[in-house]
Specification:
With 481 residues, the chain is an alpha/beta fold. The protein has two domains: 262 residues, 3-Layer(aba) Sandwich (Rossmann fold); 187 residues, Rossmann fold (3-Layer(aba) Sandwich), CATH 3.40.50.2000. Helix content is 38%, strand content 20%. It has 21 helices and 18 strands. The strands form three sheets. It has a nine-stranded mixed beta sheet, sandwiched between helices. Strands 15-14-13-16-17-18 form a six-stranded parallel beta sheet, with helices on both faces. The chain has a three-stranded antiparallel beta sheet with strand order 8-10-9. Strand 4 and strand 5 form a beta hairpin. The radius of gyration is 23 Å and the shape is globular. Synthesizes alpha-1,4-glucan chains using ADP-glucose.
Length: 481
């Protein structure tokens, strides 16, 4: 087995704020059949206290970017887990990236540079026994790994590197004053190094130095070469186009499978869709929705501009007028949260909200709602539409990024060919979203046609099988045995 180190700031089921954690948690099992043994390196947050306590200390840094740290070896199920135990950086009462007030930790640069430095030590012989052929860094929090291996490697041969962009909007930019404490040589602070708009750009540094760059869908890999999606890094991505590829995320059928999901009121599969009715009734009760003949739409999302929630809130009166209902689970922009509350107050029994995040409830919504609304302005991959496909919760999505790559619009040709899996709309405007909801409501009224679309989605393979194969091919292309 060829050893690979996967480095990330979160990993399901240990710590999670979004889809990044799901991907990082699933990769080891996805790559094992292809001859790659993946160890996952994560920060030692309080949620990992038990793993730190029962694990084995395999390395000690007296001064890792100014703090004492230990490397703890543990297990995550059947997979090897490495934990950077640095209490001064990670043992905090608050979120992974923010304090209790929602403000970024002021030393996030040091926290995640230390994670990257530790990974670079593992990937270049500075940690005895840490021999990895590939280091795979996820998002800006780990993206400094290739920069460290390029400008300040350890005593052994450096591993090849992959950086995966899960969302280009989050780049990790910090003032130039932090550079002197990063442990990099002076010449690293340059245009083709870590310098970015006069400061230090963590993601930019990784994209400059990585041997390969991936995004989480082929469409997003093309989109980020252009200004609307590249977030200022489109020129760099275009210049490195030969090193950029898109690999769609998968979902873990051990976690997301309506036939075995213990969180549902009733389990079912593609041949027993009638049993979804019990889950639908549970959603009506949980969200205070009055029973009607129309569809239940759901939203499981951050309530942000990126997710198109500002447009969705504008069309809720239309959704209700068309006979639909809405069950929403999410949190985010305070103004949007209030706008959804106002809509729920206008339409009692038709719109129900849960402000916050609840993992078990997200499963129940996929298992009981009829359609899931995802009107994102950009979506690198998206996982909620994949969960919807697997659970027969028909996705209604904008044509962008991974949404475009995974949902087949129920136009006449696709329905005639028997391949339609959802509703896809162009643009994120009031008009386009109303049209999409109107189409979904009309399709739902034709129960036989709706069931065919549900069945098509449930029969599609969105496991990690193909995605794991593609990552393995990428690793092999970098010279990994």
């Amino acid at each position: 087995m060829t050893p690979v180190l996967s480095v990330a700031s979160e990993c399901y089921p240990l710590v999670k704020t979004g889809g990044l954690a799901d991907v990082v948690g699933a990769l080891p099992a996805a790559l094992a059949p292809h001859g790659f043994a993946v160890s996952t390196l994560v920060p030692g947050y309080p949620a990992l206290a038990e793993q730190i306590r029962t694990g084995t200390v395999v390395h000690h840094w007296p001064h890792l970017l100014g703090v004492e740290a230990r490397l703890v070896e543990a297990r995550l199920g059947e997979q090897p887990l490495l934990i950077l135990d640095a209490p001064a950086l990670f043992a905090r009462d608050g979120g992974l990236y923010t304090d209790r007030g929602g403000k970024d930790w002021p030393d996030n640069w040091r926290r995640f540079a230390a994670l990257a430095r530790a990974a670079a030590d593992l990937g270049s012989g500075a940690v005895p026994g840490g021999e990895f052929a590939i280091v795979h860094a996820h998002d800006w929090q780990a993206a400094m790994v290739p920069a460290y291996l390029r400008f300040a490697p350890g005593p052994g041969p450096a591993a090849r590197t992959v950086v995966t962009i899960h969302n280009m909007a989050f780049q990790g930019w910090f003032d130039a004053s932090v550079f002197h404490d990063l442990g990099l040589p002076h010449h690293a602070f340059r245009l083709d190094g870590v310098e970015y708009y006069g400061g230090v750009g963590f993601l930019k540094a990784g994209l400059e130095s990585a041997d390969a760059i991936t995004t989480v869908s082929p469409t997003y890999a093309r989109e980020i070469r252009h200004g609307d999606f590249g977030m200022g890094l489109e020129g760099l991505i275009a210049a490195r186009a030969d090193s950029v590829s898109g690999i769609v995320n998968g979902i873990d059928p051990a976690v997301w499978n309506p036939a075995t999901d213990p969180l549902l009121a009733a389990r079912y599969d593609v041949d027993s869709l009638d049993q979804r009715a019990a889950n639908r009734a549970a959603i009506e009760q949980a969200f205070g929705l009055a029973p009607t003949e129309g569809p239940i739409f759901t939203v499981v999302s951050r309530l942000t501009w990126q997710k198109g929630m500002d447009v969705l809130v504008e069309v809720l009166d239309d959704l209700v007028a068309l006979g639909g209902r809405l069950a929403l689970l999410g949190s985010g922009d305070a103004g949007l949260e209030q706008a959804f509350r106002d809509a729920a107050n206008r339409h009692p029994g038709r719109i129900g909200l849960r402000i916050g995040y609840d993992e078990p409830l997200s499963h129940r919504l996929q298992g009981g709602a009829d359609a899931i609304l995802i009107p994102s302005r950009f979506e690198p991959c998206g996982l909620t539409q994949l969960y919807g496909l697997a659970y027969g919760c028909v996705p209604v999505v904008a044509r962008t990024g991974g949404l475009a790559d995974t949902v087949i619009d129920a136009n006449e040709a696709a329905r005639a060919a028997g391949v339609a899996t959802g509703i896809v709309h162009d643009g994120v405007t009031r008009e386009s979203l109303i049209h999409a909801i109107t189409r979904a409501t009309a399709l739902f009224a034709d129960r036989a046609a709706w069931r065919r679309v549900q069945s098509n989605g449930m029969r599609a393979d969105f496991s990690w099988t193909e995605s794991g194969r593609r990552y393995a091919r990428l690793y092999h292309s970098l010279g990994a045995a």
